[in-house]
From TrEMBL, chain A:
Enzyme class of the recorded protein, top EC level: transferase
Gene it is expressed from: 11412336
Domain Phosphoribulokinase/uridine kinase: 67-265
Species for this entry: Medicago truncatula
Subcellular location(s) of the protein: Plastid, Chloroplast
Keywords: ATP-binding, Calvin cycle, Chloroplast, Disulfide bond, Kinase, Nucleotide-binding, Photosynthesis, Plastid, Transferase, Transit peptide
The protein's name: Phosphoribulokinase
Catalytic activity line of the entry: D-ribulose 5-phosphate + ATP = D-ribulose 1,5-bisphosphate + ADP + H(+)
A GO cellular component entry from the record: cytoplasm
TrEMBL record, chain B:
Domain CP12: 62-131
Record's keyword terms, sorted: Disulfide bond
Region feature Disordered, mapped onto this chain: 100-131
A Pfam family of this chain: CP12
Cysteine disulfide links: C77-C86, C117-C126
Protein name: CP12 domain-containing protein
Bias-annotated ranges (Basic and acidic residues): 108-131
InterPro entries in the cross-refs: CP12-like (IPR039314), CP12_dom (IPR003823)
Length: 411, 131
């Protein structure tokens, strides 16, 4: 894969090459070499046709952005996931300073998170008139999404529209500069096949209906006007569109984090203890699944016993190969809750292929954000692990791009 | 020990509000000793500090919108529960609830001094001494 992008420019009379070095906003150096050729000279092997002029911008190995897609229904912990993810890379992600205060974008040193709601083609009134939900593809502009994600991936800044969740209107666009890692989160990152092909890694957060109901109750009961019936009605009304458009994206995801009610407590309906499954697709480039004890075998493990004492209902792990939506996958599952630090570190020391840089990194990340929801169960654990996997993926891609010789691609 | 500052006495702790939303949202208020930052100290205070506690609830416009949208969704769906309009109305409720919960989280974590210091680290209030 070439690391240079070629642009056609206006014809110039002279033959100039100007090496410049510029610092991008993420602080890494990009060497930009500009070649201009006139019509007469056709010997430059980078140009095939006499009549075209080329502007060749060559970046250092890490100039191309890697794109991660994250899909989930609203209210399912995407923003928590984002904070964990950006924390793994270092730095806190914040809304862009000085811009629209209702912007959905988060920017840190290495990562930019774009909310796909910004690509709504219909604003709230438009959707109301047409009688479509935000889940419906008709309410989203996939062409623009594809163009802009492609542009950012190639190192070109874009003016991305802003969807204001407070007013329900489409605000004037904001400038998005290409970061090292671009995360697109929303309802439809994997819906459009062109956008799907741009993704280097994709994750789907699958929350079961019971857990979704419990979480939404927790979120909305504090708000005046909501009652149990209204929350239930809202979930039920959105279900058909959700199952038609959002749910099928599961099959394309490289990693699915499935959240289910616990099996440790019979007839539990409080939804406090969760059973979380990390479903990892096999055969994805640069992604080696996490496993327990022996890669490819089926394991069931209860860490609580002589060495570790846990409180009720304890913790149960399992691991094994499975088939999911027609793909070969490896599933790591955790049922239960962490109560103490030593449980966490004990579990971490028995998981393999975590892509952590030092012993205890997962525990450290979990503790750093102990106030985030899910920090004591599988949701936080697997989100953190996926974050480490993405970091590993990023480093492998950068390393492989540094090896390929810098060459030009024709515009 | 009673001390009066800007009209508030320490002996009977009262919660001081800042902002227009506070007056209606009394149910979410926690009572307790109150602290006041950035206020002139007119009298001597024996112990304790004063700070204003913000009610942790979304701003009135979002809350109002959530309520309105729920009402209108219920009305729309009273007619036909499976129509596109009904579904779109409940989707709007969902979107506004999500926005309200984000606003609540933002408010919970926002500390006025920290916000100010983020933008103006060189001012006197924000100077930090590490040694």
């Amino acid at each position: 894969m070439a690391a240079c992008t070629v642009y056609s420019t206006q014809p110039l009379r002279t033959n100039i090459s100007i090496p410049t070095s510029s610092k991008t906003h993420v602080g890494f150096n990009q060497k930009q070499v500009v070649f201009y050729t006139t019509t007469k000279k056709s010997s430059n092997r980078r140009t095939n046709s006499n009549n075209r002029r080329y502007l060749i911008t060559c970046g250092a190995g890490d100039s191309q952005t890697i794109v991660i897609g994250l899909a989930a229904d609203s209210g399912c912990g995407k923003s928590t996931f984002m904070r964990r993810l950006t924390s793994v890379f270092g730095g806190a992600a914040e809304p862009p300073k000085g811009g629209n205060p209702d912007s959905n974008t988060l920017i840190s040193d290495t990562t930019t998170v774009i909310c796909l709601d910004d690509y709504h083609s219909l604003d709230r009134t438009g959707r109301k008139e047409k009688g479509v939900t935000a889940l419906d593809p008709r309410a989203n502009d996939f062409d623009l999404m594809y163009e802009q994600v492609k542009a950012i991936k190639e190192g070109v800044s874009v003016q991305k529209p802003i969807y204001n969740h407070v007013t329900g209107l489409l605000d004037p666009p904001e400038l998005i500069k290409p970061p090292k890692i671009l995360v697109i989160e929303g309802l439809h990152p994997m819906y459009d096949s062109r956008v799907r092909d741009l993704l280097d890694f994709s994750i789907y957060l699958d929350i079961s209906n019971e857990v979704k109901f419990a979480w939404k109750i927790q979120r909305d009961m504090a708000e005046r006007g909501h009652s149990l019936e209204s929350i239930k009605a809202s979930i039920e009304a959105r279900k058909p569109d959700f199952e038609a458009y959002i749910d099928p994206q599961k099959q394309y995801a490289d990693a699915v984090i499935e959240v289910l009610p616990t099996q440790l407590i019979p007839d539990d309906n409080e939804g406090k203890i969760l059973r979380v499954r990390l479903i990892q697709k096999e055969g994805v480039k640069y992604f080696s699944p996490v496993y327990l004890f022996d890669d490819g075998s089926t394991i069931s493990w209860i860490p609580c016993g002589r060495k570790l004492t846990c409180s009720y209902p304890g913790i149960k792990f399992s691991y094994g190969p499975e088939t999911y939506k027609g793909n070969e996958v490896s599933v790591v599952e955790m049922d239960g809750q962490f109560d103490r630090l030593d449980e966490l570190i004990y579990v971490e020391s028995h998981l393999s292929n975590l892509s952590s840089k030092f012993y205890g990194e997962v525990t450290q990340q979990m503790l750093k954000h102990a106030d985030f929801p899910g920090s004591n169960n599988g949701t936080g654990l697997f989100q953190t692990i996926v974050g480490l996997k993405i970091r590993d993926l990023f480093e492998q891609i950068v390393a492989s791009r540094a090896e390929t010789p810098v060459g030009a691609a024709k515009a | 020990m009673a001390a009066t500052m800007a009209g508030v006495s320490l002996s009977s702790p009262r919660v001081i509000f800042k902002g227009p939303e506070s007056l209606q949202k009394s149910q979410a208020i926690r009572s307790g000793p109150v602290f006041m930052l950035n206020q002139r100290w007119t009298g001597a205070v024996s112990s304790g500090r004063m700070v204003s506690i913000r009610p942790v609830q979304a701003s009135p416009d979002i809350t109002g919108k959530v309520e309105e949208s729920i009402k209108s969704a219920e009305e729309t769906c009273a007619g036909d529960a499976t129509s596109g309009e009904c579904v779109a109305a409940w989707d709007e409720v969902e979107e506004l609830s999500a926005a309200a919960s984000h606003a609540r989280d933002k408010k919970k974590t926002s500390d006025p001094l920290e916000e100010y210091c983020k933008d103006n680290p060189e001012t006197d209030e924000c100077r930090t001494y590490d040694n």
